[in-house]
Write a structure and sequence with these properties.
The complex is a heterodimer. Chain A is 28% helix and 31% strand. By secondary structure, chain A is an alpha/beta fold. The N and C termini of chain A lie far apart (57 Å). By secondary structure, chain B is an alpha/beta fold. Chain B is built from 8 helices and 16 strands. In chain B, strands 5-9-4-1-2-3-10 form a 7-stranded parallel sheet, sandwiched between helices. The chains are: A alpha/beta, B alpha/beta. Chains A and B meet through helix 3, helix 4, strand 7, strand 8 and strand 9 of A and helix 3, helix 4, strand 5, strand 7 and strand 8 of B. Strand 13 of chain A pairs parallel with strand 16 of chain B.
């Protein structure tokens, strides 16, 4: 069984991003970029399926600028067998990415596609569900456990207040939540090996996909700030303030 | 006004009653278009459908009832919404685990973009939403005929659950897609309010040290305050608290009257989930912890002595 994993190159989670002062966008000059953390969990899950003998091949896909090759190399250092970059300098919104992935699913014929539940840059949380809809497959968003048996995926999902388990016919789409697994560190030999793994580059035009953005960003701004309050010397003062000043208890 | 000015809110319910998050979604929906209609899709859910008629500002309640709609499976619920979509200019979901799972499926089937987690309706086609863990607020305009949006629950007041006078209209249920089936749901029953709409939240971080200490120290405080329990991602990662307690960029976004952060340093991803709380209290022994920069009341102390003292004092 082939597994397709989608990975996105995003601003590293340790970077505090700011809006440009003229409101025209986000200041991304010289910031550190990394693989989206949830996508790293997706690659790890695919590798565990391969190590269990369930998956035969793991293909990592990324959509975006040429620099996305870096995150494909990261995915291959974790263990993905090969990479595919859909190269585009256009701003790719989730619907466009889902359409690109649909085209690749048609080419690669995976039985399972694993994606991160959310990219930590645009915080959209859409692409996996959109892909599932476009390919007419079942979906399990926010997975905390994935099991494959008898042509089905049985997936436990993180939901508000607890856990839900669904059974999906294959092919299916799974998006990862935090507790699904803890990704391994790529070892130096594996990082070196990843550099030699095959990496194909295609364009949206070659895949016949219109990636024009549907949402226009009119303005980017800093959120309303919250200023620091006061430090209180002891618990008694804190309780007095909460009762008499804030009146919340 | 044309029919396309009307707004469909996809209700969340337990077949008997409507979940609070839907009330917040109705408020956002009323700012988007003319009439607000609510879809209650379920099985033997007439109780929930009746409850939806009582929501202030709702003009019609559409009720689809069939066994394949019982568990709100994303594939079937999305198909149900798409069947009704031609009559609407907006389709609105609360940004809950169900809304986040189903809305993108609806948007893709309609070949339109989705606007996630809106915090303000600027106009019928323009919305504000946070990106980068809330460090930037973008104003986005949809160029699509139908706007599919999810609503950040904490950013909109809930519509009144009483006072509405809508009628229930049955609509045909869509067939089972057969793509997925429900196996089980394990929901932790507690006497506590739900994290997403609790008036007070008591939250713990990595400094709690263990799951035993997390519950031994924070549970009595939450009991005393009638609060929901929350946790930072660090505490969830360390196994001190369940994942659905996670407050932050990739967990729950909360805005209670009072948020008590115990042993939480205040990473930006956590602040993204709670900085709109009305009053924030931080208890941390690290004077430099970033949480103090947004706390209304900071107490620099060892939480293992301060929290019991606090319980005794309130």
């Amino acid at each position: 069984m082939k597994v397709l994993v989608a990975v996105k190159r995003v601003v590293d989670f340790n970077v505090k991003v700011r809006a440009k002062t003229d409101g025209s966008g986000v200041d991304l000059a010289n910031v550190k970029m990394s693989i989206n953390p949830f996508d790293e969990i997706a690659v790890e899950e695919a590798m565990r399926l391969k190590e269990k003998g369930v998956a035969s091949e793991v293909v990592a896909v990324s959509c975006g600028a040429s620099a996305c090759q870096e995150v494909l190399r990261t995915a291959m250092a974790i263990g993905a067998d090969r990479g595919v970059l859909v190269e585009s300098d256009t701003e790719l919104q989730p619907l466009a990415v889902a359409k690109l992935l649909k085209a690749l699913v048609a080419r690669e014929q995976p039985q399972l596609v694993i994606l991160g539940k959310q990219a930590i840059d645009d915080d959209c949380n859409q692409t996996g569900q959109m892909l599932a809809a476009l390919i007419g497959a079942g979906q399990a968003a926010f997975a905390s456990k994935v099991e494959i048996a008898d042509g089905h995926a049985v997936v436990t999902r993180e939901i508000d207040g607890g856990l839900e388990t669904v059974k999906l016919a294959l092919p299916a789409v799974v998006t990862t939540d935090l507790r699904l697994n803890e990704p391994r560190y790529a070892t130096l030999p594996n990082i070196m090996k990843a550099k030699k793994k095959p990496l194909d580059i295609v364009t949206p035009e070659q895949l016949g996909v219109d990636v024009a953005p549907r949402l226009a960003t009119l303005k980017s701004a800093e959120p309303a700030g919250r200023s620091a309050g006061v430090k209180v010397p002891d618990v008694a003062t804190l309780v007095a303030k909460l009762k008499n000043e804030a009146k919340v208890i | 006004m044309t029919a396309q000015d009307n707004v469909l809110v996809v209700a969340e319910h337990d077949h008997v009653s409507i979940k609070n998050a839907t009330l917040n979604a109705v408020t956002a929906a009323r700012q988007c278009g003319a009439e607000v209609h609510v879809l209650v899709a379920g099985h033997e859910a007439s109780g929930a459908a009746h409850a939806a008629t009582q929501i202030a500002g709702v003009a019609r309640v559409l009720h689809a009832d069939a066994p394949q709609l019982a568990e709100a499976l994303a594939e079937n619920l999305a198909a149900q919404v798409v069947a009704l979509a031609p009559a609407y200019g907006h389709i609105v979901f609360a940004s809950t685990s169900t809304g986040k799972s189903v809305a993108p499926r609806v948007a893709a089937l309609l070949d339109v973009a989705q606007v996630s987690d809106i915090t303000r309706v600027v106009s019928a086609d323009t919305f504000e939403r946070p990106i980068y863990a809330g460090n930037v607020i973008v104003t986005v305009q949809s160029r699509d005929a139908v706007k599919v949006v999810t609503v950040r629950v904490s950013a909109f007041d809930g519509a009144a659950s009483q006072g509405g006078t809508a009628q229930v209209e049955r609509v045909p249920a869509v067939a089972d897609t057969g793509l997925s089936s429900f196996v089980e749901r394990v929901v932790v029953k507690s006497g506590r309010p739900e994290l997403a709409d609790a008036r007070i939240v008591v939250s713990g971080g990595r400094a709690m040290g263990s799951s035993e200490r997390f519950s031994a120290v924070l549970t009595p405080l939450a009991d005393k305050l009638g609060a929901a329990l929350g946790a930072s991602r660090a505490a969830v990662d360390a196994g001190f608290a369940p994942n659905d307690w996670q407050v932050g960029q990739t967990g729950k976004i909360v805005a209670p009257e009072l948020y008590v952060a115990c042993g939480i340093s205040g990473a930006i991803q956590h602040l993204a989930g709670m900085k709109d709380s009305k009053v924030i209290v931080a208890i941390n022994k690290d004077a430099e912890a970033p949480i103090f920069s947004i706390a209304d009341y900071g107490l620099e102390a060892d939480l293992f002595s301060a929290v019991p003292e606090l319980i005794a004092a309130i």
